[in-house]
Amino acid sequence: MIDVRPVAYVIGLLVSAMGVFMIFPLALDLAAGDPHWRAFFRSAVICLVAGGATAIASANGANGSMTLQQIFLLTTGVWLAMPAFGALPLILGEPGLSLTDAFFESISGMTTTGTTVIEGIDALPLGTNLWRAILQWLGGLGIVIVAMLFLPVMKVGGMQFFRSEGFDTLGKVLPRALDISSALIQIYVLLTVACAITYFALGMSGFEAVCHALTTVSTGGFSTSDRSFGLFQGPAEYAASIFMLLGSLPFIRFVQLAQGSIRPLLTDSQVRAYLRWNAYAVLAIVAYELWHGGQSLPVLLRETTFNVVSTFSGTGFSSVDLSSWGPFPFVLLIVVGLIGGCTSSTGCSVKVFRYLILFEAIKVQIKRLHNPSSVNPMRYDGQAVSFDVVDSVIVFFTMFILTFGLLAVALGLSGLEFKTAVTAAWTSVANIGPVFGPEVGPTGAVHGFPDFAKWLMMAGMLVGRLELLSVYVLFMRRFWQT
Amino acid sequence: MVDIRPIAYLIGRMLVVLAILMLAPAIIDLRAGLPNGRDFLESALITGGVGGLIALATVNALGHGLDIRQAYLLTAVIWLGLPMFSALPFFLGAPGLSLTDAYFEAVSGMTTTGSTVIVGLDALPVGTNLWRGMLNWIGGLGIAFIAMIFLPIMRVGGMQFFRTEGFDTFGKALPRATDIARALLLVYTGLTVACVLSYLLLGMTILDALVMGAATIATGGFAPTDASFGKYPGAAEYVGAIFMVLSSLPYIRYVQLISGRRRALWDDLQVRAIVLWLLVAVAIVSLWRIVVADVGAEEAFRESLFNLTSILTGTGFFSGSFPIWGSFALVVAFVLGMIGGCSGSSSGALSVFRVQVSARAIGAQIAAINHPDRVVPLRYAGRPVEIETMNALMLYVTGYILTIGVLSVAMTMVGVDITSALFGIWTSLGNIGYGFGPMLAETGTFRDFPDAAKWIMTLAMLLGRLGLLAIFVLVLPQFWRA
Question: Model ipTM?
């Protein structure tokens, strides 16, 4: 049996930390003279008490190191416990959601998906909107840390390739984890501040700028308005595109940049491919729309850039009605959503790295077909790629498609239309945000979905965020033995 | 440079055979006094003339057998070239299709897809309908032959696993190939005769029984009537389902069955799986149908059984109102169509074998996450699956999915709506023949697709039929060098 105390200890600490974060919306509502602050106060107390009690109760089991199994348990545990407590203010305060809806909103936040069940976001108390943004910000930060520290050791989906860049041995996890985490947090905070200032300079109110910055850098996608970025058409869209791109680049490169070397960022194959593909997608859609006699080029270019980057990075802001663009741009958006950002970023989905490995493997395979005895070693970024990594990547890809497919089937069974079911599965597994279809409300909110469908989507978001296999492994009996 | 003369010689001879086969519909239509008979004669003359000349010009190059590159080229050229000539009757005679439509129809026939562009099949001359059935039949035979003999040697998509069951070295290919081909022909003809006779007994007209019998065994799906199997509801659907399943089983097992191994069929893992999966899917869909649509149990079972079998085996007959049953049935159909029949049969798509091995590989991967140091050898049917086979296979699966994605995007680019595009590629790449979507809603055929979309689907049918890589490899520059 696994010793769950170290896991419980960390989760307890994190839940208490979440209670501390609730001070921000609490203070905001208090300052605005809105009695709604009580909801945050009660939630914060619950978080601190529950988290603190858990941490204290299991403190004697925590000795600073963790086994592989405990790490698996921890990642999934964190992404279940945090949204559960993060949902409290949404139940106790405005908009007084049901349990299902509150948990959905909270998970959608912590997984940086950005699908909302709330219609009438503009009318929410300031604190609630700030809290939704904070959920995404925390979720984004969390996933960057997990992606850089844990996934390489967990060997999920080919992430073992990045092992040496994080660190190697399990025994040393916590001390080095703290080093890397603090570097990450600094960069993450810096990006957020830069983003907020830019937004403010481009005409958002201070509150809007902060909330949107929190959800941009985390590639989350929650907005303070039903119209999302439709309110801020213009230069703000370009600024957002840049920060969404930054949020979906490998954060390790920023750490290296902070240490003074810009080369790793510029020569990273992932970064180059990601930027290139973004450009291709934008150009293809612009060309298509021009050919079909769309609007003027500057407007077209701006809207396309913003919405493509938003989907590609898995953010999920929208500034126009995407489904009115015609079949080709729409399908292209679905496709880029299935690619996603770079590894160890806040971006989601399959990720550029895995596609690069896949293409390389397919190329090698085709070469072998007509020249069976040739040996073609696979290389990525100048490093040899072991069979093990290729295998994991292929399996990950297959799992991703299977999960996506099965989720779509299940959602179809829950009564959703074909298109709604497919895009809902797409948006949850790839943590993107928008859903398309007749059941979706006019503002993009999915409150009209059956509860069963909402739970399915939550499962999809969670599994997609934690790179599938790290969750699936918990369902194996052998995991719990030994 | 590849010596193309032996290939040209074989193609030439095949064209002569094709010309001889065209005489059958020619004679039937001539005796019926239809002008269409003359068009068949003309087509036969052109085909025979061209084929004869090619064969004569290259006859002196034969005698060294084929090397692996020539084998690739041959398979590709057969499936590109023969449909060109078999399209002649559609082009020159009734129904006077355009070049695009005629080639589409012929490729759809010879790849055993079964998508049609002709509306008003019942009014066509007997010869034309017979010719369509013959195309299905020839194509099915051809692909069964290639699947058993060529693909294992070509090592496409993990098929090298079946190498020993066919034969090993390429030097000995032709003599043993003749043996196998003879046995295969016997089985194939035997099944067809049995199927046609059963259909006749169930009250079909002679033409219907002949064409649908041939199309059933080829898992093709052409029918001489717009209503397909809807014309014969009841017992014929059960019999049709049985024969469709029989023709999607590995033909090598029938050969073994004849030579005295009584358990050959049922001992095959693929056979068991396809029967099991089919029954599960049918059970779920019929239950859903009974509950949701409130139809009788027998009707629900019969129509689910027939249509799902038709899709899983890649045949493409339809009956009842299946295409408008709603999203759940559609999604189940989509999944089944992706799976397809067994390796070594005339069915297309991923094949049961590949799905089974992928599933095991995924299981092994999850297990390995937990115990990184343990090596679990992957086994299939008691034999170890080599890493190389595994990789080829998994890449085939991913390549297949990526191809669906890329081609669907291409379809939307030329103006097809999303559902029609996705299902159009699904049906073409999997050689299924079943269409869904607004573009087919009016006629139930592919007539109303834009020409560019028809060419994309034609390409998809060929890609799917020849196992993707067998075509992709031809695009590689290295292939053509020394």
Answer: 0.75
